[in-house]
Design a protein that fits this description.
There is one protein chain. With 280 residues, the protein is an alpha/beta fold. The protein folds into 2 domains: 3-148 and 189-212, NAD(P)-binding Rossmann-like Domain (Rossmann fold, 3-Layer(aba) Sandwich), CATH 3.40.50.720; 153-186 and 216-251 and 266-274, UDP-galactose 4-epimerase, domain 1, CATH 3.90.25. It is 35% helix and 18% strand. It is built from 8 helices and 11 strands. The chain has helices spanning 12-23, 68-85, 118-137, 162-171, 191-203, 220-231, 255-261, 269-274, and strands at 3-7, 27-31, 56-59, 89-93, 141-146, 148-150, 176-179, 185-190, 208-212, 217-219, 237-240. The strands form 3 sheets. It has a 6-stranded parallel beta sheet, with helices on both faces. Strands 6-8-10 form a 3-stranded mixed beta sheet. Strand 3, helix 2 and strand 4 (89-93) form a beta-alpha-beta unit. The model has no long low-confidence stretch (mean pLDDT 93).
Length: 280
């Protein structure tokens, strides 16, 4: 039986991946600070006991959980262990939304990244480190660059993800804060479509960098309008100055993933929002 080891399993994407692979009948090792198998990312030498030969590794650890220097040290330890154990595949979940920077057209994987936020800069650093070390250790590597992920099991109280946060606030008659204006336009991808792509990347041992996105933009105004229609409620909106670490327009070119993974995202924004009913 295939074993899937997920570092950072307690977050939104990690927990969805865990459920997905368990439903496929695979053995899933869930590793996180808060999980049934707690792990201390500052003690990477302990990783060896969790990894076996031919395992499939997914790296989802957020830079918020460990400082930059320790994160890089931890990752290098992990890759040395993966090389010794001759793992089957290594999948790193990076970012698309924070990596490329400002632009007016859809970004593809060959475009040079110009991140402007600390989060995006760190993800670029991690990508470069992983490509270097996986090449050195002969570890098959795939890097996923997701767009803005949302879904009905996302925790609205953490204020990650505009769709989930807005839905929760409108439903509960709470004001929405918009930094800038309602014309800010982004590419939103439902988590179930993301999980399908990540599963293919891992189990089919695909290598390289892949943008994972719907490939369609919606403004914040359009998101709010769809939620208002779904809930039959009006949003209360407060405006604040634009956040300089945010992007006003963002779209990913997903043609590589469609072609090489035989993947086609199915859930558009309206349907994705309707799935929240009774869940949040």
């Amino acid at each position: 039986m295939k074993r899937i080891v997920i570092f950072g399993s307690s977050g939104f994407i990690g927990s969805e991946l865990s459920k997905h692979f368990k439903n496929l009948g695979l053995q899933v090792i869930e590793l996180a600070k808060s999980s049934t198998t707690p792990i201390d990312y500052n003690q990477p030498e302990t990783y060896a006991k969790f990894i076996q030969e031919n395992d499939y590794i997914i790296h989802l650890v957020s830079p918020k959980e460990i400082d930059e220097e320790a994160h890089l040290k931890s990752t290098k330890f992990l890759l040395k262990i993966c090389a010794d154990k001759k793992i089957s595949h290594f999948l790193y979940i990076s970012t698309g939304g924070a990596l490329y920077g400002h632009g007016k057209n859809a970004w593809n994987e060959e475009d040079e990244a110009h991140p402007i936020s600390p989060y995006g800069k760190f993800k670029k650093l991690m990508e470069n480190e992983l490509k270097l070390l996986c090449s050195e250790f002969n570890i098959p590597l795939a890097i996923a660059r997701p767009s803005n992920i949302y879904g009905e099991n996302q925790n609205p109280l953490r204020h990650f993800g505009a769709v989930t946060t807005f839905y929760h606030q409108i439903k509960n008659n709470l004001p929405i804060t918009i930094y800038g204006d309602l014309d800010i336009s982004k590419d939103f991808l439902h988590v179930s479509d993301l999980i399908d792509a990540l599963s293919t990347l891992l189990l089919e041992k695909k290598t390289g960098i892949f943008n994972l996105a719907l490939g369609v933009n919606h403004t914040l105004g359009e998101v709010i309008h769809e939620i208002e229609n779904a809930l039959d409620k009006k949003a209360q909106i407060n405006f604040k100055p634009f956040n300089p670490n945010d992007i006003t327009f963002f779209r990913l070119d997903n043609s590589k993933a469609k072609k090489e993974l035989d993947w086609n995202p199915k859930i558009h924004l309206k349907e994705g929002i309707l799935r929240y009913k009774g869940k949040i």
